[in-house]
Each structure stands twice: as structure tokens, then as C-alpha cells.
Amino acid sequence: MQGQYQPGLVLQPFILAAALDADRIQLNGTVLNPNRPVPVSGEIKRCQTTPPEAATWADVLSHRCPGPMQDLADRLGLAGLDDIFLRFGLATPPDLPLNTELPEIVPLNDPLQAGIGQDTLTVSPLQVALALAALGNDGRLPTPRLVTAVQDAAGTLQPLPDTTTSDAITSRAARDIRQLLTSDGRIRFSISALSGPDSRNGWYLALTPAGQPQYAIVVVVEESEDLEMVERIGVGLETAVANQQ
Q1: What is residue 195's predicted lDDT score, i.e. its pLDDT?
Q2: Which domain does 177 fall in, by range?
Q3: d(CA 181, CA 190)
Q4: What CATH number does residue 89 fall under?
């Protein structure tokens, strides 16, 4: 709830989903030079894994490529990126009655850096979980709540009304991105993200069960680029959730 991180390519599924929804990209559309070097905070970043030479936007997501995301962000502009982050709840604090100390929201400054999560936007794991839940909820962004029922004076549990939702994207775009994130029967996304010049965080995002998602899981391990460890933690949580069903 309180942790704030530069998200890096954690933003990739959400930006691509919104761009797909707005017909700004096609998943089978050709992408030029996807593995080109991208300078970030004095380092050179490329795709997390090597994409094919004849790459598509689907490959950009599968191989976690930053270069094409900068191209797309340049086309979307700051206003387009602002709109995406707002629709996915990444630019506003979740409405929960908890004490939080959130940083002052600073307007986006550079679309090329914002498109790879290296500009002024910082996010909490809860914000990412809600955005991920929108992908699992056919594009509808849920409003978080702490309990599903309260006890009245007579000791009877009174269910709270369903929380409101807002449409971040269409169900078609959400399903298409979920399909791209599905492998080995799991919907998951893991990435090592720079968070400033001296910090690296490992992220693991998952929706479970894959056939009909009911849970969004987000793991962030600070100061770690060991994605195998991060994934083991995330898979362990998925297993624990499955055992409780």
C-alpha cells in the first residue's frame, strides 16, 4: 500500500492493452529493430530475452522489449500515457481507509522514458495488483475494499454491496493480453525493473486460476535481479491460493 517504485516495464502489459484497444497497434503488426539498445540511468537495456528478427508486438511483450515501447510512447504522447495510467488506476491512490504517505504526483515529463516506466510515475504493489485485476476482469478496474461484510448490533453479518468498477479497456483487449501472458497453464509476467539509478527490483505478476481469474498476485522483491527467486515466491503464492479454493 505504501511502497512506491518506478515501475519500469511492469507497465508494458497495460500500455499495450490500451494501445491495442485504441487500434494503435495490432498484435501481429511488424516491429522494427525490437532489440535495439535503450539507455536508462547510465545503463543500456535490451529485451529480456532475444526476440525473432521478424518481430511483432506480441513478441515485444513476450520478450520484454523496451525499444518498441519507446516508439509507441512517442506516438501516444504524454496525454495518451496520462490517460492510460489514469484508467488503470496507476496515477491515483486506491480509495482505502488506511494511513498512507504517498509522494506528490508529478506530471509526466518525457514520453520516451514514461513509456518504459522511468519517468516521474511511481506505483505501489497494490496499484499494480488492481491494474492487473482489470486484465483478469475483462477490462473492468475494481475498487478495493478491506472486508466483504460487517457485523450489525445483533451480531449478524451484513454483506456490503458490490464495489463499483470502471472500464479501463474493452474485454477483447483484456483477453488478448491475458492470452499472450499465458504459458504452462499460468497467466504471469515477471520483469527486473530499474527504479532509479541505483535500485533494481524483481516483479512477478499473476492471475489465477488461468481459465477464469479470481485472484491477482503481485510480488516485488527489492534490490533483486534474481527473477527465478521472485518467480518461486509468486508460484508459491499461486499454489497456496489454489489449495484454499
Answers
A1: 81
A2: 8-143+158-182
A3: 10
A4: 3.40.710.10
Percentage of the chain beyond pLDDT 90 is 76
Q: Say yes or no to pLDDT of 208 above 90.
A: yes
On whether residue 193 sits in a domain, the answer given is no
Query: pLDDT tens digits, residue range 66-98?
Result: 999 999 999 999 999 999 999 999 998 888 877
Q: Is residue 33 part of a domain?
A: yes
Query: Which residue, 167, 165, 179, 164, is CA-closest to 139?
Result: 167
What own/partner pairs with CB < 8 Å and gap ≥ 24 does 215-219 have? 215/241, 216/129, 216/130, 216/132, 216/133, 216/136, 217/129, 217/241, 218/125, 218/126, 218/128, 218/129, 218/132, 219/125
Residue 188 domain-assigned (yes or no): no
